[in-house]
Every structure is written in structure tokens, then in C-alpha cells.
Amino acid sequence: MQLLTLKIFCDLVETKSFSQSALRNKITQSAVSQQIRSLEDKFGVVFFERGRRKFSITPEGQLFDRAARSILDSYEQIGPRLHQLKNVVSGPLRISTAYSIGLHGLPDILRSFRETHSNVDVQVQYRRSHTVYEDVQQGRADLGLVSFPSRSKGVIADVFDEDEMVLICSPNHPLALKKKVFISDLQDQNFVSYEADTPTGKSISRVFRQHNISLANQHEFDNLETVKRAVEVDNVISIIPLRTAEMEIAEGKLVAIHLEDYAFKRPLAVLRKQGQVTTSAMREFMNTLLNKEVLSFE
């Protein structure tokens, strides 16, 4: 049995498509079918229920999938372990990051890291936060970057930084003209924010509930850039990380306001899989991030 056969099997489980599994492995769809049939014949079991409208994995298939992934993961770790023996910082580094961190906080970190570790092939995927956790749990990413880390089975989270959250509005908004702004001044304002199911969106909603703030209107967007554009052109306000709006503030398109009676911070964390072998590339990237005492969640 070859490793390619195990990969074809795992890809079929993940994609639920013979054609997609074939495409991933650059073989024909019939070759995928032959490989699966050969495995089923070898073990005398059926791994997949096939039908015109139904494709599902059997309990036997689920067991084989777990075993196959374990074998493939072990094989993938051989190269990094050998590199570690040579004390060479090289090889791939797969990072899954939430959009706001990946687009605003990560570029400078990557630039510095690549200057000192040119032999590391850094691959970045931009995701929704819940997908970042899944990527780390399932081994699709070596490290994950999220805000407001939460406890998740099989994942260790190390807080490495805090974003300062500020109120933003257009220069013509009434709040921009006030010398001091308090959280109570947000009462009955028109507000735009992240979607409510995102970590930052949940945190903002929690703060408003704690301070009994009711909004006149609230609109949600799925990305930070849209939030900023809405604040620029409409009579609305928002709360976002200061570093993500520095360019618009410098250009005079937005005004950043620090609330007098509430300091809003957004913790940032790096995720890694519990029990995972730490490659030299992972170690050095985490050293770049974790340059101070951190708080770990397991």
C-alpha cells in the first residue's frame, strides 16, 4: 500500500467527490475508483456508500480515514524532524489567520521573519475565525492567528499582543467635534460593526449590554474594509482596532476617538495543535511573536 493511496482516500473523504480527489492528485477519476475498490477488496469491507444522490462514508471508512491521516501526519513530520537535527530553520510553514490580523498585523511580522529566515516557505490562508481553529485542529495549518482566543479541544492558544480598539467616525460626525467622548455618548447612535457571530462582534455586543447601551440602528458587515467605508460615507460610527484604520486617519477620512471611561482591548493569539511536533520554522515564528510573557489556554 502506497502513501498516495492513503492520500487519495483522505481527499475523497474530505471532498466527497471522486472528480475532486482525482484533480487534487492529478490522476483520472477512474484511477481513484480503482484505488478505493482495491482497498475495499484488500480489507473485505465497504468504505463508502455510493448512490446517485447519496455519497457517505461507512463506520469502517471512518476508522480507516483516522488511521490513514495518522500515517500521513507521521510521514509529514519526518522531514521537519530531520531538519531539526541539523538545526536548520527551513521547510514549509502553514499559517491560517483571521482576516483582520492577516491583512493588518501580519504583513510586518512576515516581512521581518522572511528577512531572517529566507529558507522557510511561508504559506498564508485567510479565514473566518472558526475556520482557523478547524485548520489547526485538523492539521491543515501549523499555526493559527485569531483574536479573543477561546478554549478549544486539542488547541493551545498563546496571547502575543493586544489591539487598542477605538471609536471611529467621519470628521463631520457630531462626536468628532466633542472634546471628550464617554461610552454613554454612544446611546441611540447609528452603528456598524462586524457580524455578530465573530469574536470581535460578540465582544462589542457584550460591552454594550454591560453598559446598557441601546443603538438607534445597527448594521453588520463581514469584513473590516466594508465597515470603514460605511463610516466614511454615512452618518454612522463603529469600534475597530486602531492599527487597522491608521491610513484612513492619516488621510483625514476617519477620526479615531478614545473613550474617556472605557479602555477596549482586543487580545491576539497564536494557535497550535496540542501534541504536535514543533518544527524549527514554527519555533522561530512563535519566537518572533512571543517576545514577552504569554497566557496559554489549553
UniProtKB/TrEMBL annotation:
Classification of source organism: Bacteria, Pseudomonadati, Verrucomicrobiota, Verrucomicrobiia, Verrucomicrobiales
Domain HTH lysR-type, residue spans: 1-58
Keyword DNA-binding assigned: yes
Protein name, per record: LysR family transcriptional regulator
Organism for this UniProt entry: Phragmitibacter flavus
Pfam families: HTH_1, LysR_substrate
InterPro entries (UniProt xref): LysR_HTH_N, LysR_subst-bd, WH-like_DNA-bd_sf, WH_DNA-bd_sf
Keyword Protease: no
Record-level Gene Ontology MF annotations: DNA-binding transcription factor activity; transcription cis-regulatory region binding
Keywords: DNA-binding, Transcription, Transcription regulation
Family: Belongs to the LysR transcriptional regulatory family.
Alphabetical list of Gene3D superfamilies matching this protein: 3.40.190.290, Winged helix-like DNA-binding domain superfamily/Winged helix DNA-binding domain
